[in-house]
């Protein structure tokens, strides 16, 4: 397949790109620094099936001939207070780019078959212990509203006759980035532990399963609309912290209380960690997707030895 991708140099996008190349697909990655990325790829052995193009140019010319468009771009949500200015950047980096991709597809004589666009389980808002399938409506906080608008913008591509799939991704676990890049040094320094109340559900998923689920969604013609990219056995934050401590042979004794996190990050940004998302991958399982890692201990153990 010929694939056009945004966000292809990030944590999930980079992993997905390597998986697609290993499958024999060709990828065009839109990025802010195409020359730099091309040079890095060349230094690492290169590939004649990947090219980098500027994301701020006429995307339709680079997208022409693509079978699939994948949209994983968006400013990083973590590590900062969500001021009014930051919220605007977070929102625009997702909605405006998605709108640009749909507009570019509209200009093509031959449309792509599939548009896969990112989203997050933050779509649901704070739902306590409720099991969240894709039938659950959107929440009311900033992250939920942003995900709702992000998805609706992507769904405009359906009017062009393009199948749209939306990956509502959970907390992605892998050694190269994501949550573990922040948590591992803390645990290894013997000061790791639970965050917030500890009873909130932590919607984890292994990086391999995220990427395999995206490939599955693209190739499965019966799957359209949103799917929860989360492991089938969500755990509470207390369970996650205890398991991570066991895997790295460190205690998980230190709790970061919710009020302290709110003081540092503000309520909106802290909600990504303190909200409870007991998301269940109902649509993936109904369509026959098989997870490699459905147990948190198994997933963390594999990551630590890889």
Structure, explained:
This protein is α/β, with parallel strands linked by helices. It has one domain (2-305): 3-Layer(aba) Sandwich (Rossmann fold), CATH 3.40.50. The chain has twelve helices and 14 strands. The protein has helices at 11-22, 34-43, 59-63, 84-107, 142-155, 179-188, 207-219, 237-247, 258-265, 267-274, 282-286, 296-305, and strands at 2-6, 26-31, 50-54, 68-71, 114-120, 131-132, 163-169, 171-174, 177-178, 201-202, 204-206, 225-229, 235-236, 278-279. A seven-stranded parallel beta sheet has the order 3-2-1-4-5-7-12, with helices on both faces. A three-stranded mixed beta sheet has the order 9-8-11. The chain has a two-stranded parallel ribbon with strand order 6-14. Helix 1 (11-22) links the parallel strand 1 and strand 2. The protein is globular, with a radius of gyration of 19 Å. The relative contact order is 0.14. The mean pLDDT is 90.
Short description:
The chain is α/β, with parallel strands linked by helices and 306 residues long.
CATH-derived topology? Rossmann fold
Strand order of the largest sheet: 3-2-1-4-5-7-12
Domain tally: 1
Count of DSSP-assigned helices: 12
Amount of helix: 40-55%
Structural class of the helix and strand makeup? alpha/beta
**Rg measurement, Å:** 19 Å
Report the count of strand segments.
Answer: 14
The CATH architecture assignment turns out to be 3-Layer(aba) Sandwich
User: Low-confidence runs (pLDDT<50, min 5 residues)?
Assistant: none
The ordered string of helix (H) and strand (E) elements is EHEHEHEHEEHEEEHEEHEEHHHEHH
Global geometry: globular
Largest sheet: 7 strands, parallel
Give the CATH superfamily: NAD(P)-binding Rossmann-like Domain
Strand content: 15-25%
Average pLDDT: 90
Beginning-to-end CA distance, first to last residue: 29 Å
CATH C-level class = Alpha Beta
């Amino acid at each position: 397949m010929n694939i056009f991708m945004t966000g292809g140099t990030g944590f999930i996008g980079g992993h997905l790109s390597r998986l697609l190349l290993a499958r024999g697909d060709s990828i065009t990655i839109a990025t802010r620094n195409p020359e730099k990325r091309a040079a890095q790829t060349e230094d690492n052995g290169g590939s004649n099936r990947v090219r980098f193009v500027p994301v701020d140019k006429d995307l339709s010319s680079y997208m022409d001939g693509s079978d699939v468009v994948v949209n994983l771009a968006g400013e990083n949500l973590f590590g900062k207070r969500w001021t009014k200015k930051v919220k605007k950047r977070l929102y625009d980096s997702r909605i405006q780019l998605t709108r640009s991709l749909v507009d570019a597809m509209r200009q093509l004589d031959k449309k792509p078959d599939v548009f896969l666009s990112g989203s997050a389980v933050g779509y649901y808002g704070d739902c306590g212990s409720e099991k969240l399938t894709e039938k659950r409506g959107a929440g009311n906080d900033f992250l939920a509203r942003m995900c709702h608008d992000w998805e609706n913008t992507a769904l405009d591509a359906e009017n062009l006759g393009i199948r749209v799939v939306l990956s509502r991704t959970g907390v992605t676990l892998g050694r190269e980035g994501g949550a573990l890049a922040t948590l591992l040094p803390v645990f290894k320094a013997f000061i790791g532990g639970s965050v917030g109340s500890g009873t909130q559900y932590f919607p984890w998923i292994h990086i391999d399963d995220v990427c395999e689920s995206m490939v599955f969604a693209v190739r499965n013609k019966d799957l359209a609309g949103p799917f929860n990219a989360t492991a089938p056995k969500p755990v509470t934050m207390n369970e996650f912290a205890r398991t991570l401590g066991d895997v790295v042979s460190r205690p998980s004794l230190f709790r970061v209380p919710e009020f302290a996190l709110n003081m540092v990050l503000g309520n909106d940004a802290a909600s990504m960690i303190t909200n409870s998302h007991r998301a269940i991958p109902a649509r993936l399982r109904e369509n026959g997707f098989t997870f490699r890692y459905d147990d948190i201990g198994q997933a963390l153990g594999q990551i630590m030895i890889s």
